Amino acid sequence: MPVESLLPILVYFLVGIVLRHSGTASGSEAAFLFRFILHVTLPALVFPAIAGATLTRDLILLPVSGLVTNLICMSAAIAYARAASLSTSASGALVLGAAITNGVFVFTFVLMSLGPEALAEAILVDLGNAVFVATFAYSAAGYFGGSHRASLAASLFRTFRSPIFIALAIGVVCALGELKPPALAMRVLSPLGAATIPLTMVALGISFSPGALRDPMAVRTVLLRMPLGLAAGFFFVWLFGFAGATATVVLVAAASPIGFSSVTLASVARLDTEQAVAALSLSVAIGMASTPFLLWAGHRWL
């Protein structure tokens, strides 16, 4: 894995930090970029990756590993919150942060270092995360948010009608039916999909909060998300017999930073949003170092 291929990711992230500290951009601009990525550029990246992939029955195990990894981290976070007698607001932010993974962050590194085929596998792992967010995470947000309960049916409907899910579904149909997407469509989608990597890292840099590095609750959340997720990833690699790039993708996804949805759900449920943002920022800072290391280690030993 050439290290220089990952250098642009760090540069894009630093550009976002500079924009934030110079006053050129703020949290509102980062929020817009994330919405643009999720609704426009990411679907344009997902569709060609899945449509051009060779799908097998064994790949159904990838979303299973993603969903169950989240469940393991959520269960550990709930147990810790009860043992530490945390407030409802803090407990909810902790549980959501520990449970939800950051698929877009993983896609960026996997595509740059392992290529389109590995990206397709990372997308399938994140499908398990998407289903988890629409079910268990929304239920948890409703539980900890009290009267501000999220509708499970509404969250599922929102997931199934999202541009990412639609792009994934059409891509799967094309892959299984060996259908080649129109050349014109690919010429339009390719530049949009390519914009996902720089836009994601710039948005993460803008939203990064240095103060999160000193927040003890953020540290605890990250410990329940990333190291525990990595341990679960090793378990699924062993259980399902994953090897090579597939094993690397599973491990990187399992140990990924906290997902953006944790902050969104914490805000909707009126939980401790500042804690959620701090944990997200800290996890991204760690992920900038841990993700390249895992990719290097997987390339060397798996």
Give a quick precis of the structure.
The protein has 302 residues and is an all-alpha fold. Helices cover 78% and strands 0% of the residues.
Order of helices and strands: HHHHHHHHHHHHHH
Provide the CATH topology: Na+/H+ antiporter like fold
Shape by Cα distribution: globular
Number of domains: 1
Q: How many individual helices? A: 14
Level-2 CATH architecture: Up-down Bundle
Quaternary structure type: single chain
Q: Give Rg in angstroms.
A: 18 Å
How would a textbook summarize the main sheet?
none
Overall CATH class:
Mainly Alpha
Query: How many extended strands?
Result: 0
Q: Note poorly predicted spans.
A: none
Structure description:
Helix content is 78%, strand content 0%. With 302 residues, the protein is mainly alpha-helical. It has a single domain (3-301), classed as Up-down Bundle (Na+/H+ antiporter like fold), CATH 1.20.1530.20. Helix 5 runs antiparallel to helix 6 and helix 5 runs parallel beside helix 14 (273-301).
List the helices and strands and how they pair.
Blueprint: H1 7-21, H2 27-51, H3 61-83, H4 88-99, H5 103-114, H6 116-144, H7 152-160, H8 163-176, H9 183-194, H10 196-207, H11 216-240, H12 244-254, H13 260-268, H14 273-301
List its salient traits:
14 helices; mainly alpha; Na+/H+ antiporter like fold; 302 residues; 78% helix
